[in-house]
Amino acid sequence: MFKQLLVLVSIFSLTSCGSILKKNTINKNEAEKDSFAIEDTTKDQAYQPIENAGQAEELNKAAAEEESEVEVQDRVFFTYDSAELSSDAKKILDTQALWLKSDASVKITVEGHCDEKGTREYNIALGDKRATAAKNYLVSGGVETSRIKTVSYGKEHPVYFGSEESVISKNRRAVTVAN
Predict the structure, then answer these.
(1) In this predicted model, what pLDDT tens digit does every residue of 21-52 receive, in sequence order?
(2) 111 forms bridges with which residues in the sheet?
């Protein structure tokens, strides 16, 4: 009987040590995950040049998947070297204006973007014209001017990469962002 009790106590002690060791291992792994997450959020997210067509295609595919996941009408597109709103763009902005009028507490920023053609300075000016065109249309739809800011990124924040017209045309846009 004493021998059986001693065996049970030994087994219990070993199992307890094993679970403490396991618990410490889990905590160490969680700590590593936490430190990885911290490193991830501190990475420099500066513009990185595209090295090859394969990398561009991969980025384009990821952007297209992201667009298909969220069906939000937050952007309007422009033709080459233009800040004129198309009829499709006006429909999207009409919907945005209705939504903005339904909640007067929401403020927005309209971002103007361009494709990679032209100089940096020219595209900053064109992006500003695009953002202003979208803002003015929203204001004409009843949204207060004080609720809308504009900013131009020119060609500095492309969504798609490549040299085909079908790809770069998607970078000629104005994007509405809620603040």
Answers:
(1) 344 444 444 444 443 333 343 344 455 677 77
(2) 151, 175
CB atoms within 10 A of CB 38: 9
> Residue 146 and residue 2: Cα distance in Å, rounded?
85
> Alpha-carbon distance 89 to 174, whole Å?
10
First to last CA, the chain: 74
For domain 72-178, give its CATH number from 3.30.1330.60, 3.40.50.970, 3.30.565.10, 3.40.190.10: 3.30.1330.60
Whether 86 and 173 have beta carbons less than 8 Å apart is answered as no
Q: What is the DSSP letter of 81?
A: T
Q: What is the pLDDT of residues 94-131, one digit of tens each?
A: 999 999 999 999 999 999 999 999 999 999 999 999 99
Amino acid identity at 57: E
CA distance 104 to 20: 56
